[in-house]
Write a structure and sequence with these properties.
Elements lengths: L3 E3 L6 E3 L29 E2 L3 E9 L3 E8 L4 E8 L7 H15 L9 E6 L5 E6 L6 H8 L4 H18 L1
Antiparallel strand pairs: 1-2, 3-4, 4-5, 5-6, 6-8, 7-8
């Protein structure tokens, strides 16, 4: 109904102005703007084990969601490629190889890859470590230019991760 929100975790009904589910405490999805289509992945399972809660961001290649690996109660970031990109058969194999290679990296500044697969609609996904925080772009937008010593520290971490990958 339009005057309620359904919890994606426990399916309980909640008043539409509610932010958290009254039954299980899960954060509820935000209201959908009139005329826009709801995201079909939010509230659904991907790969039979990842319950998608909300969208974190979107780019040219795909969408990143906050999801839960329900069997072990772990929050993950779930990157799902746009469906039109998966029509290229070579892309699937390249994406799989990149996911496999990235899953072997162990540097502390490299994200941990947990899983890789295909959604019911044929889109490819990678489940990875979820890190709460703000992007570097958001930090610059909020705080302005970053001091040199902090830039050097961030660059050192990036270079360490790249060195481990190569």
């Amino acid at each position: 109904m339009a005057d309620e929100k359904i919890c994606p975790k426990c399916t309980a009904s909640n008043p539409k102005e509610t932010v958290f589910c009254g039954k299980c405490g899960e954060k509820l999805p935000k209201e959908i703007a009139p005329g826009s289509k709801p995201d079909p992945l939010i509230g659904s399972f991907v790969g039979d084990r990842f319950l998608v809660h909300d969208k974190l961001g979107e780019g040219g290649m795909g969408v990143v969601y906050r999801a839960e690996q329900t069997a072990i109660n772990r929050t993950v970031a779930l990157k799902v490629l746009h469906t039109d990109l998966t029509k290229d058969g070579n892309l699937h194999e390249r994406f799989r190889r990149e996911a496999a290679a990235a899953s072997r990296l162990t540097h502390p500044n490299t994200i941990t890859i947990y899983d890789f697969g295909k959604t019911a609609s044929g889109s490819l996904y990678i489940a990875m470590e979820y890190i709460q925080g703000r992007s570097l772009d958001d930090e610059i937008q909020k705080s302005g230019p970053i001091p040199y010593d902090r830039v050097a520290f961030i660059a050192e971490q990036i270079c360490g991760s790249l060195s481990d990958a190569h």
